[in-house]
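Q: A small favour: would you put together sequence and structure tokens for a protein?
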Amino acid sequence: MVGQKTLEEYGTQMAQCVRCGACQAHCPVYLETCREGSVARGKIVLAASVLANAVGLDTRLQEEIGLCLLCGSCVNKCPNQVPTDRIVAALRRRITETQGLSPVGKVVAALTGSRPLLRGLLKGAELLSPLLFKKIPETSGLQLRFSPAGLKDRTLPPIPERNLFARVPEYSEGEEGKPVLGIFAGCAITYLYPEVGEALVRLLQTLGYPVFLPKTQGCCGMPAVSSGNGPLLRQLGGQQIQGFSRRRGEVIFPSMSPFPGGLARAI
């Protein structure tokens, strides 16, 4: 199972933040809000205050913690490598444990916890988005901000008829002596860009590697991390570990997969 550190276990690392401000110029949220609570050192202060019972989990704190993108830019620039992204994830789990999932979090949990439901949503989004925009008046600013033409190029691509699991075998033999390479494809490559996964499998096969693509793999866990849903994160982690443990070898993550940024942020 995937281990999840509590806020208390990050106490020592919180103390390593020296408030130098190196994170400030690299936080995309702070560049928009210009609020101290939005930057990494501000979030560390908030987390430490919660840990010391100096502040409660009020609406303002939840807003600041909720705005974090968990992008890790602050960690990369931190001279002391304070894991702010993981601390924020732990604080979100504390909030969820105390106050429950938000309505959005419940929807996210339902979708990411069910592969059939996720596939159905993707197909439905492709079919319904043009119909939804027909109801928006042409004079509305939404037509400019979220125009069908813009959405066609920028957000949801046409959903392929066959996903990655339907295009390649679960296991492909390779040269003797070469280690098995497992592929964690993630939702984007599996359902939106299966041709990327196919190309990767062909490349590895050309190099002589056995390739393992367990069909039981599911969501990377990043939505669960973002919403502070610890139980779902444990469920997804166990699912991935069980699937890949069926064949010993290395697991690789295509660049489009946020798996390392998802489940790893919970450890």
